[in-house]
Amino acid sequence: MKKLLTVSLGLSIITSSLLATNGTQLIGFGAASRAMGGVGIATHFGAESALNNPALYSKQEKMEVTGGLTLFSPSVSYTDNGGKVDSDAGMSILPALSYAQKINDDMAFGVAMMSMAGMGVDYSGETVTNAAGMQDALSVLQFAAPFSYKYGKYSVGITPILQYSSLEMPSPTGLQDGSSVDFGVNLGFAYDYEAYTFGLIYKTAIESDYGLANPEALANPGMFGLGVNYELTESINVALDYKYLMYGSAAGFEDFQWDSQHVLAFGAEYRNDLFGIRLGANYGTDVIPSEGDDQLISNNLVLFPAVVAYHLTAGGVYDINENNTVDLTGVYGTGSQNRTVTSTYFDTDLGLDRTKNNLYKASNTQISITAQYTYHF
After folding, report:
1. CA–CA distance, 305 with 290 (Å, rounded to integer)
2. Burial grade of 355 (CB within 10 A; 0-12, 13-18, 19 or more)
3. In which domain, by residue range, is 249 found?
4. Which residue, of 25, 50, 65, 135, has the greatest Cβ tally within 10 A?
5. What pLDDT digit, counting tens, does each position of 310-336 carry?
């Protein structure tokens, strides 16, 4: 389902379908990060590092502006004892815009606007299975103002966050919707040692009250992350990130009994004076509860099919000249979850209790393309 969101700054985005990758979060922010499996805690990608690790802004050498679009195309299905149905939620367009500038040798700042999370399905045209007539949509847009300070080999950064989000959920009386403006903060740290850069980030949870009957509130989860980047040569570097997404304590997701998620991201890059090639992979553990009653399991797999576990990524960058750079990235993600709930019922013909296995399954495959342009001043 597509929905046009107009925000107060006059910027518009189109969002739809299931945008989730690591739970409800994009695996990375910006073409370079996404091409390298979503790394960015210890790897500097210029202005697009705004939502990855603000401490890395201290590595900024020139003033630059970056703008990009990501096209998301998901394929989501749900299966239970009543059969299999496919979600009609279609393509999404996610914008990103960021700016970075060095103040002096020790300080840098920037501003950014990025679509960073979302999910949604559309089974409104279906008449069978527990998914019949169900639809929902979550969209999250963040405005960020990163600032970094460098002291020797150490860098620290802070990013105040202004978040606009909207949520649509089914209810007994029809589709309910609401929106919310909220605040949060990202904190970052980086340390350079010879050919290594080590990074650390912490993102506060941002809770949004949509005024709905259920859920009353839904939080963008807090996150803790560690990363390392190693420059093998002047042209080749590799990076590894670990992220812990705290869904288990996040409002709304806690009610749906989501598990917190462990994420590993790996990326490699070859870069010369003209072009670069990037490759990556990303793995996230399950967030959907493994046990529960029929309603809990079914609602999770119908409305929140955040079941993508594996991502393979690739991209390229081309320097048109000293001031102009273009990036192109492709991401493929896939995953599915099966749950079986055993229930007991009384067989009136035999006069005894019997058991029945109820099968629930959600599958999700995603393909996305990110195109990005950067101007260096």
Report:
1. 13
2. exposed
3. 3-376
4. 50
5. 999 999 999 999 999 999 999 999 998
